[in-house]
């Protein structure tokens, strides 16, 4: 049957969320002839709708439903109601993302084995051999049009990159480039080349940056096998007496509730909403929430070890011009415990506009130190630090029964304590980041605390054994054969690299698995 599908149609695959994981999975399944209903809590915004104003754009696209925080991380103090920066819109956070698209290093698939025991860390190897991912990574890079892969050229460096590269070379770093970016360096895939207009976080008006919103989603819809219902917020996943999931309850834009039947349900709401939905779907049969026999749903929340370094120079840099994040130093991404921590980190160029800079440079800061820093905005360069953080069982998403969302459901609480390994790695990265800028004449340097989490990972992690995690190597929940997790919450460990390329590669791989299992009538 062609889209649109009936609520009573129990032959469809229902996918919750249309971001990097859900949006790609929906298109991949639709291309294979599988009927898909995608339910997306947010509205549909396309390049012509994007707003070139940081806070207005944030208000248009960000997930702003009630959330609470706890733990010793700075974010709980600085942004207590906003633990994460996640988008609520068709295309998910791929509208806001910067496009950095890196493969994991081989050893990062096997962190427990490589790093050995780390006190307080709940490390586990991914149940995937790195070689199994090679072809899927290539498919993901081709889909996203990643520069410096295939025959795609790198992007040109902007001023922010030129300062960064000069500092890196002065320090003796060797692996510095404009990186692998899901941004067209030449027109590709019916999308324009990057025009270097900047402010990529606010959505790319040229479509040069890949987003599921204007690639995978419309292509899936064009097959007639995919129906995307926007402003459809899933409240609960239903199951039958045998424990199989049977459909989902959702609220439409007017708040009216509907039950969409399903043969298979795939959860791709990002790493806070996905576990929250499983927990909010508790029933007599599954009192601790769906797929939670291990007790691991919501646990091992990771957000990458992050921070930023900004620096002021004598002359203008105008870092905001050109791509937001096309610049990377990879020398520190290796695993080298002689630095005092396991795992590694990347340094990536980053530019914020003045409104965001005022909010993020020194949250709560004031006085001359702060105002003179902002006065120097034109002469600033900036970089972001992103490294592997340790999964901890106690870092977790739980239901906060004291705070309710607009549907009367308990809000998620995000608890996060930095692990000593995260702290040691951040201090090392701050030192190196400041040294990069000081090597080329910075007059002031600003190590800057983490922003609300953009890389939200773990919380429904993959494991070989059902007791250690929530899903198997295909993202299929250990407990319920027709319930899948299809987003970054599957991550067993976080690796040092920005996660989206891996989320996309896993979604392509999962589509192969689901279609094959459906064909064999296994699910
Ligand atoms: C500013 C910024 C810059 C970034 N830059 C990079 C980068 O350079 N490289 C990189 O790799 N990553 C980057 N990221 C991270 C990247 O965007 C995310 O890791 C990725 O999009 C996560 O994919 P996902 O499928 O897990 O979730 P998302 O893409 O967030 O999609 C989840 C979707 O599910 C929907 N949803 C949630 N709950 C429900 C529900 N109950 N019912 C219906 N729908 C629901 C949401 O509305 C959302 O649309 C960046 C993120 C931000 C915010
Ligand atoms: S700099 Fe390039 S990728 Fe970024 S928003 Fe502009 S055109 Fe798009």
Automatic annotation (TrEMBL):
Residue ranges of domain Glucose-methanol-choline oxidoreductase N-terminal in the record: 88-305
Keyword Nucleus: no
Keyword set includes Flavoprotein: yes
Family matches, as InterPro entries: FAD/NAD-bd_sf (IPR036188), GMC_OxRdtase_N (IPR000172), GMC_OxRtase_C (IPR007867)
Keywords for the protein's UniProt record, in alphabetical order: FAD, Flavoprotein, Oxidoreductase
Domain (Glucose-methanol-choline oxidoreductase C-terminal) ranges: 391-507
Family, similarity comment: Belongs to the GMC oxidoreductase family.
PANTHER family: LONG-CHAIN-ALCOHOL OXIDASE
UniProt-recorded Gene Ontology molecular function terms: flavin adenine dinucleotide binding; oxidoreductase activity, acting on CH-OH group of donors
Organism encoding this protein: Aliiruegeria haliotis
Domain of life where this protein originates: Bacteria
Lineage: Bacteria, Pseudomonadati, Pseudomonadota, Alphaproteobacteria, Rhodobacterales
Name assigned to this protein: Choline dehydrogenase-like flavoprotein
SUPFAM superfamilies: FAD-linked reductases, C-terminal domain, FAD/NAD(P)-binding domain
One Pfam match: GMC_oxred_C
């Amino acid at each position: 049957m062609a889209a649109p599908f009936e609520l009573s149609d129990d032959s469809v695959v229902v996918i919750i969320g249309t971001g990097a994981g859900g949006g790609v999975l929906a298109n991949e399944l639709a291309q294979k002839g599988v009927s898909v209903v995608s339910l997306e809590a947010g509205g549909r915004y396309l390049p012509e709708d994007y707003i070139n104003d940081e806070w207005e754009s944030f208000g248009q696209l960000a997930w702003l439903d009630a959330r609470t925080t706890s733990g010793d991380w700075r974010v709980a103090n600085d942004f207590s109601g906003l633990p994460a920066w996640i988008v609520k819109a068709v295309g998910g956070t791929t509208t806001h993302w910067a496009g950095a698209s890196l493969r994991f290093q081989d050893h990062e698939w096997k962190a427990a084995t490589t790093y050995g025991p780390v006190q307080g860390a709940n490390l586990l190897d991914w149940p995937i051999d790195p070689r199994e991912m090679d072809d899927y990574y290539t498919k993901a890079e081709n889909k996203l049009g990643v520069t410096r892969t295939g025959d795609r050229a790198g992007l040109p460096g902007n001023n922010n990159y030129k300062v960064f590269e000069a500092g890196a070379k002065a320090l003796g770093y060797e692996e510095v480039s404009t990186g692998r970016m899901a941004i067209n360096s030449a027109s590709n895939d019916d999308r324009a080349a990057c025009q270097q207009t900047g402010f990529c976080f606010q959505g790319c008006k040229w479509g040069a940056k890949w987003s599921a919103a204007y690639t995978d989603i419309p292509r899936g819809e064009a097959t007639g096998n995919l129906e995307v219902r926007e402003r459809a917020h899933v409240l609960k996943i239903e199951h039958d007496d045998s424990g199989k999931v049977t459909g989902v309850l959702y609220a439409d834009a007017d708040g009216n509730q509907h039950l969409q039947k399903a043969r298979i349900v795939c959860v791709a709401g990002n790493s806070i909403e996905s576990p929250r939905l499983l927990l909010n779907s508790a029933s007599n049969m599954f009192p601790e929430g769906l797929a939670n026999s291990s007790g691991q749903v919501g646990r091992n929340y990771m957000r990458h070890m992050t921070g930023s370094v900004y620096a002021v120079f004598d002359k203008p840099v105008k870092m905001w011009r050109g791509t937001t994040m096309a610049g990377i130093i990879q020398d520190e991404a290796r695993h080298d415990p002689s630095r005092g921590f396991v795992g590694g980190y990347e340094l990536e160029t980053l530019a914020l506009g003045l409104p965001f800079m005022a909010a993020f440079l020194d949250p709560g800061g004031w006085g001359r130190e702060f105002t003179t820093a902002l006065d120097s905005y034109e002469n600033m360069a900036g970089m972001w630090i992103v490294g592997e953080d340790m999964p901890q069982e106690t870092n977790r998403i739980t239901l906060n029964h004291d705070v309710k969302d607009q549907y009367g459901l308990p809000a998620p609480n995000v608890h996060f304590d930095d692990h000593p390994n995260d702290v040691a790695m951040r201090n090392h990265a701050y030192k190196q980041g400041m040294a990069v800028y000081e090597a080329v004449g910075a007059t002031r340097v600003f190590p800057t605390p983490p922003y609300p989490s953009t890389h939200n990972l773990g919380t429904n992690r993959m494991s070989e054994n059902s007791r250690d995690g929530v899903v198997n190597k295909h993202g299929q929940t250990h407990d319920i054969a027709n319930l899948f997790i299809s987003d970054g919450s599957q991550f067993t460990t976080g690796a040092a690299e920005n996660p989206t390329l891996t989320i996309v590669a896993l979604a392509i791989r999962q589509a192969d698995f689901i279609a094959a299992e459906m064909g064999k009538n296994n699910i």
